């Protein structure tokens, strides 16, 4: 896929990633390193929490989302965040097959930096049932063609 510049992006344009499967060992390894809480580490302890079972850290889901996003939305120079918001409407579970669907919701050339602008994107990370496990809206700095 060719690198995209601000001029290539249009409101309503959609991008869909490949998918990946998340297994229990990856959930537990990420949690041990970055988010060591019982509902991410111990399947038995997780049964007695709000999640009622082992759940991936939201930050693990976010990292996987970024991996899928980079592969499906090839912005020239890379995806450089400029703020946004993120929600996790349901847990990501062992065995979930994740994919990312992205929609361009705004494209704004900079008034002071003619070499770039911003794109606002809505990113849904969906499981194998089409249910969102993460929804994010992000502003990204995007270069313009010379």
Q: Could you characterize what this model shows?
A:
The chain has helices spanning 24-34, 38-41, 43-46, 58-72; strands at residues 14-21, 80-87, 97-109, 116-126, 132-143. The protein has a single domain, classed as Thiol Ester Dehydrase, Chain A (Roll), CATH 3.10.129.10. It has 4 helices and 5 strands. It has a 5-stranded antiparallel beta sheet with strand order 1-3-4-5-2, covered by helices on one side.
Summarize the structure.
This protein has helices at 24-34, 38-41, 43-46, 58-72, and strands at 14-21, 80-87, 97-109, 116-126, 132-143. By secondary structure, it is of the alpha+beta class.
Keywords, separated by commas or semicolons:
146 residues; alpha+beta; 36% strand; Thiol Ester Dehydrase, Chain A; 5-stranded antiparallel sheet
Describe the protein's topology:
Blueprint: E1 14-21, H1 24-34, H2 38-41, H3 43-46, H4 58-72, E2 80-87, E3 97-109, E4 116-126, E5 132-143
Antiparallel strand pairs: 1-3, 2-5, 3-4, 4-5
Mean pLDDT: 96
Helix percentage range: 10-25%
Radius of gyration equals 17 Å
Q: Shape from CA axes?
A: elongated
Query: Per CATH, what is the topology?
Result: Thiol Ester Dehydrase, Chain A
Enumerate the strands of the largest sheet in spatial order, edge to edge or round the barrel.
1-3-4-5-2
Q: Can you count the helices?
A: 4
Q: Structural class of the secondary structure composition?
A: alpha+beta
Number-wise, the strands total: 5
Instruction: Return the string of H and E elements.
Output: EHHHHEEEE
């Amino acid at each position: 896929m060719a690198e995209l510049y601000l001029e290539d992006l249009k409101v309503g344009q959609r991008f869909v990633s490949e998918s990946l499967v998340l297994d229990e060992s990856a959930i537990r390894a990420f949690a041990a390193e970055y988010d060591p809480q019982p509902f991410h580490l111990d399947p038995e302890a997780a049964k007695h929490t709000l999640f009622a079972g082992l759940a991936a850290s939201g930050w693990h889901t976010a990292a996987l989302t970024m991996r899928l996003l980079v592969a499906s939305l090839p912005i020239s120079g890379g995806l450089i965040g400029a703020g946004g918001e993120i929600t996790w409407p349901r847990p990501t579970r062992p065995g979930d097959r994740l994919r990312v669907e992205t929609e361009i919701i705004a494209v704004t050339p900079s008034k002071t930096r003619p070499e770039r602008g911003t794109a606002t994107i809505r990113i849904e990370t969906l499981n194998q049932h089409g249910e969102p496990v993460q929804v994010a809206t992000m502003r990204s700095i995007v270069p313009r063609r010379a």
